[in-house]
Amino acid sequence: MRIALLAHIRYPVAPPFTGGMEAHSWHLAAGLAARGHDVVLFAAGDSDPLFAIDAVVPEHHERRFPGLEHRGDPGLRAYVDDGYAAACDRIAAGGFDVLHNNSLSRLPLERRRTARVPTVTSLHVPPYDALRGFVHDSPAPGHRITVTSRAQLQAWWPEGAPPEASVLHNGVDPAAWPFRDRGDGSAAWSGRLAAIKGAHCAIAAAKRAGIPLTLYGPIEEPDYWAARIAPELGGPIRYGGHLDGPALAAEIGRASVFLFTPCWDEPFGLVAIEAMACGLPVAGLANGAAREVIGEAGCLVEPGDAAALAGAIGAALAIPRPVPRDRVRRLFSRDRWLDACEALYRQARAGL
């Protein structure tokens, strides 16, 4: 199939990934290409040149409009809307068999567009007012919508989802996250260093539990970093940097437990299954889809109780490392994910 993949443009779709949305688009493009599909990645122009890039905007918008996401800035809004509108027009005229829409733009959801190109839209965020109405108005025979968990399906459609909407769990390549049969007694945390990701909760719990902790990921919110993270660093609490995939997998795999601390309605938790593939059991907060994703591979507690989270670390350490690895292989492998994507593409194409 000739597939257009429309990405989020806040950051480049390139390693080391800033977040799950960038990782999702990169691995989707790579996986589909490996299966013989002709993939064009519509993304920020400074994305990975490994792919055939059709630039939605010349450079990712966090570089041009730093710190203005979700603040209603008119310049940013025009930059994003103009880029997506033109990209959608090129997709409609480009002879594509299907569009996989990974953006947060309302424009690819318009019925006049989904009526021209079979579309699969993947929602990677909880519902919010700027997008909710457009999503609810968009289901159609040629437009399939996915969310990353049953928890998010319920959040987007509390009264019941339409037949065009379904759960598409994220997947990882277990070979990219090699299993290790033992850890070094430390804890690891990875993700965007932003308040909603809760690294401060991980630090508090690790200190209570008396276990060394290393944080990995990009510093997305400098003020949060300066106020809540940097003052805690030193001794057993360290920052390991923002690493690319192989380096991060090697570092995560050395640890004995992974701390997963979402302070929001977490849609999935890609970092958790990456660590689980390496064999790390998870101690974390039961927000959003955490229980659905982690299951028997971890111990989760309700948010707001550092003592309980510290206790969860000890409980998680008792889980044999093959348990999280086997859960990923059974439920969240890259091949399972790509099989589901291809099935959705066939459904969308049959609808037009």
Automatic annotation (TrEMBL):
Quote the PANTHER family the UniProt record gives: BLL5217 PROTEIN, GLYCOSYLTRANSFERASE
| GO MF annotations, alphabetized | glycosyltransferase activity
Q: What is its EC number?
A: 2.4.-.-
Full protein name: Glycosyltransferase
Q: Which UniProt keywords apply?
A: Glycosyltransferase, Transferase
Q: Tell me the InterPro entries matching this sequence.
A: Glyco_trans_4-like_N (IPR028098)
Where does the Glycosyltransferase subfamily 4-like N-terminal domain lie? 19-175
Q: Which organism is it from?
A: Methylobacterium brachiatum
